[in-house]
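Anyone? Bumping this.
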Amino acid sequence: MLGRGLKRKLSDYEENMAGLSSAFDSSRSLPYPLKRQLVLNMCLTKLQTYKMLVEPNLHRSVLIANTVRQIQEEMRQESNQQPVNICPGIAPSSHSYTGIESSGISLQLPSGISQQESNCCDLRSVEDPIENSLLIVSDDDMSSAISSILKDLDFVEDISPPTCLVPTGDDQPKFPENTVLKLEDDRQDSKGAECVFGSFEISNSTSYLKDLAIDDIFEDIDTSMYDSDFCCPPLMPPRSPSLATEEPLKTFPSCNSSSANNIQICRTDLSELDHIMEILVGS
Amino acid sequence: FLEGFGSLMQDVLWCFSQVKGTIDIGVTEADIISTVEFNHTGELLATGDKGGRVVIFQREQESKNQPHRRGEYNVYSTFQSHEPEFDYLKSLEIEEKINKIRWLPQQNAAYFLLSTNDKTVKLWKVSERDKRPEGYNLKDEDGRLRDPSMITMLRVPVLRPMDLMVEATPRRVFANAHTYHINSISVNSDYETYMSADDLRINLWNFEITNQSFNIVDIKPANMEELTEVITAAEFHPHHCNTFVYSSSKGTIRLCDMRTAALCDRHAKFFEEPEDPSNRSFFSEIISSISDVKFSHSGRYIMTRDYLTVKVWDLNMENRPIETYQVHDYLRSKLCSLYENDCIFDKFECVWNGSDSVIMTGSYNNFFRMFDRNTKRDVTLEASRENSKPRAILKPRKVCVGGKRRKDEISVDSLDFSKKILHTAWHPSENIIAVAATNNLYIFQDKVN
């Protein structure tokens, strides 16, 4: 398997995921927390992919977000029933499983708790391919990921404003105030969960999700020329103006060009922008 | 109506009748069929595709010379219903794919249908022209204008026969009423109104008015972060023009009565089956999402399709369905893989036969399934070019779940998940079915005994 620090190619990742999901389906001895983690990671990966789309599929996003919430809730319940002292290297004790069972969800548990513990010890092994590809994600990150996905789905220019705020049906979400409180409680709980799972973390790749800031959507738009103090100085551009207007697209700065270049061609770019906007708007 | 129509499954032998579409190995995206619908008499069969085109087939008159060959369906009209659009405000491309086609009942010589993409519904008129006027005064036969000063006598133009021409014209365009993607349209039994449903809202339209619609259902929460459920399908009751149902991504169906309030927030009935704890998995909610809901012709039942089952509900019993049919339960142990490759989100449709005695839905590997509600027998058939000899009887197929695989069986792992049958249609009164397999349309009929 790949050593640490080497970037995995996307195709390898996809193959790995396909292999993992068929392992999930076929293997009965895969421990439940591992299965759950696998599903969670798949969900978050999908949500992240949708975030990059201009128009994510609302139906799918909602279904996946609900699945994440369900897993989140389960993990939270599990952590609430944990004893405070956890031996590093040992998985959550059997107490947590009774917690899950009591909430009415039946699981395919591996036979015998002792086997469970030994399986979890194996999780610490670096060479385990499944373990290497799983990332432990904090509760906080999950909540914020779901929130930001759903917020983005709220189109700015909504055509028909809601006529009333009365929820439809019995299972509709509660009024906003209650939800805000709930979120705050969740964050406090999640901090607790983090402490519990802190010693259990296999890899510190929580940045996996922290990169999912809303600002990242605008990453590819270069706004450095507007940030620069040198905006519109009386500088002559390197190219002759006539050439610049003939090839407006070519002189347009590339996405990640440094600000030094921008200062030089600042002036011509503004007029080129106008020119391009005219073309786009089709006036 | 045929004698003994709706008879036992064993008496119905399905035969290949026709297939439309190319045999090319590489399928053009635009040719993928996205909806299939017979009109109310079964004389016309319409398909919509991803490229925004509508193709209408017409059944030819039965000939006395060939009684065995019941009327074949031939192309009657083809037109571009929707074009790709670009929403400049949101910087979004609007797909031209036809999501649904619904026919209006015929009221005169012309045919009318509604077709919709994600955002816009259009009313199309399809009419025949087999005569044309000749003998204009101001134009000559080629259409060139004549010099009025050269005209010495007047005549009345006469209608002369011409080759049959079928024209499709857009009569109404119902636009700008949906923020989210339209998943259903349904014509009301009053034939004056229809509804269009998107992920969060349902709008009621009058056919004559295009710049206004009534919002009758709105489940959008004040805060989008609270969103946990979307509308997946909606349909009007076949006889009661005030009643409609809509299904959700949580596996529930709500029946609403438009007489109670302008905004139908409060359902009149709420259909939900309690979850089976032994089948619980991470994917339980996803597979419970209803992909299609259809009233029976009688109006007494509704049928819903979720990922693994088809359910029949009695309108008078809300707490559970009266019948549940397993479409492909062998996929239950493959859900993680199907989630990973997104197949779990495939939206299968379901249909009733004319007498509501048999229901049909699609599956993978170009298989489709029929369930006889009376005999409880079911059959799996395949739409494939190999079984496409004229009047060849379709052989029932079987998926082997584990252990020894018999000769004609196919194992679960060999199923082709790229060949999915999402759209099927059943003739309103006869045993003729249309099955869309990617870019091909198969028509099967029962064997004439």
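Late reply, but here is one note on the structure posted above: Chain B touches chain A through 57 residues (CB under 8 Å).
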